[in-house]
Amino acid sequence: MKLLMVVHHQFDLWNVPAWFVERLSQEFPQLQIVQRASYDGAEEDLRDAEILFAISLGPDQLPAAPKLRWIHAPSAAVHHLLFSELVESDVVVTNSREVHGTVVAEHVMGLIFALAKKIPQAVKLQQKHAWGQETMWNEGPHPREIAGATLGLIGVGSIGGRVAEMASALGMRVVAVREHVEKGRPAGVEAVFPASALDEVLRQSDFVVLAAPLISATRGLIDANRLAVMKPDAYLINVGRGEQVDEAALLEALRERRIAGAALDVFQREPLPEDSPLWSAENLLITPHTGSITEKLWHRHYELFSDNLRRYVEGEPLRFVVDKRKGY
To answer: What is the mean pLDDT of residues 219-234?
Structure first.
């Protein structure tokens, strides 16, 4: 049984560390484990690979892998893998959604505190050596408490579920939008609404957190019309996918102060181009897709993947299986 691992990224943290492969080899000596740094010339290894650990696989590469039965993506998003040929195949796809849930939720809470307490403005004043107490109170929305504020959560998966627990523990009222209302109300959520009631959630929310998977229904979800529904003193936070927010419409809403502000960790183009007008938006907090960064990243990946690999070898059901037709 052959496991092929192909991960290559310019940001070194996203690349599989050497200890990961060494430990797998020790724990699963019955497997042939091959690691490649790129897909160049990978067709030879794909030919007899039964398991693929990779971020991507193209439609032209699938025919080169006739023995492939399982793809594991070391990411939460898998939309880039779900081309029609793979969706229609018998190949099982799993993702790493549980790896990122807690750390991204912590990032969300950090952004909420930063926006509520106007930390970015304080940093700018510090750089000017300015004692800006009156400025911080008088310019723009006042600093506010988060206890008692309403958090509108779009998506209650591994990230959204942890955000709900953390926010409610701090006294926030959490309302959520989820595709399948029949699944019930997650811990920390006061009320669950169907996707058709998104505007109602936006009207109620002081902080809107977008943590949904990228599917056709969520692409461009937050557009000019949806931004117009939000409270003028509300904040938008996106840790989902950049394509879910109309950045031009958001920029206009921010410049015209139709909402209080926003924090984005994901963008339509990454890295965000140097000439993007988003950089200069005064009421926008930008983090460079660092929500999932942690020194524990690959240890969490190993715990999740090795458990699933053991399940696969022993013929047990896999965890974190993606519904290829739904996209998550």
So the answer is: 98
